[in-house]
Amino acid sequence: MTTRYAALLRGINVSGHKKVPMAQLRTLLAELGHSDVTTYLQSGNAAFTSASGADEDTLATALEAAIEEHFGFRVDCLVRGGPYLRAVADACPFPAAGLEGRQLHVTYLSGPADPDRFAGLDQEAFLPEAFRLGDRAVYLYTPEGLGRSKLAEALSRPALVKGVTATTRNWNTVRKLVELTRD
């Protein structure tokens, strides 16, 4: 049985650091035995088909090891199946259809979005910005975009993300990943 997945690489190709050309990422994924590999943007999004039967964490660990061996630096990766990505998009608690892609983001997490981690964050202090927790995801509404968001800055504090791999994608990318991982 084959499954479509998306690989989400964290913190690559930013200001000339951790350069991972997308052509080389496609080659690495193919060398790991995956097929129908495609990439989206330069920020570390790849879709692929796997017949390995491995779980998401095993696929991510193999990709991290391949990147480190090939490029000489470590990159945190999350791998998520197409049905999961669709479920995250469908569960969006914000009116996605009425917002620009730069106003809505999903931070994908390596583990559950534990409400206790976020309990001390006073959401009202950041209005009109807002966030909601999902399943291994945090939805973030930033009317002025992520770059100017005080809430996004607060959500990335070490106490909130300690021990969790987190990588954020804007809503345009969320939708594109859903499209790229359709069976």
From TrEMBL:
Top-level taxon: Bacteria
Signal peptide: none
InterPro entries the UniProt entry points to: DUF1697 (IPR012545)
Protein name (database record): DUF1697 domain-containing protein
Source organism: Streptomyces ficellus
Species lineage: Bacteria, Bacillati, Actinomycetota, Actinomycetes, Kitasatosporales
